Amino acid sequence: MGLISWLVFGFVAGSLAGMATGNRREGCLTKIAIGVLGALIGGSLARAAGADVSFHQFTWTGLLIAIVGSALLLLVLQALCVGGRRSPRRIR
């Protein structure tokens, strides 16, 4: 895929993963970054599990793997409180 295709693919994967995890506050560039990184993470996990995954062309399987990888990335980031909800301050 070309650069524009990766950007669109990343935006779609990042947006859908944000909807799935309830994290919808990011901007376009953040969604693209999360989607592309999620595709790399999901592809690596799928290959480690023995699946034959390729992102050289658009496939629905590739998009699903990118969404799952993006959702995992968002959940890890939320668990680390990077851009996630912060705990409320206690009033004493």
How many strand segments? 0
Biggest sheet record: none
Q: Which residue ranges are poorly predicted, with pLDDT under 50 across at least 5 consecutive positions?
A: none
Helical content band:
55-70%
CA(first)-CA(last) distance: 56 Å
Mean pLDDT: 79
> Beta-sheet strand percentage?
under 5%
Structural class: mainly alpha
Q: Quick recap of the structure?
A:
Helices cover 65% and strands 0% of the residues.
Structure notes:
- The protein is mainly α and 92 residues long.
- It has three helices and no strands.
- It has helices spanning 3-21, 28-48, 60-79.
- Helix 1 (3-21) packs across helix 2 (28-48) and helix 1 (3-21) packs across helix 3.
- It is globular and about 55 Å long.
- The model has no long low-confidence stretch (mean pLDDT 79).
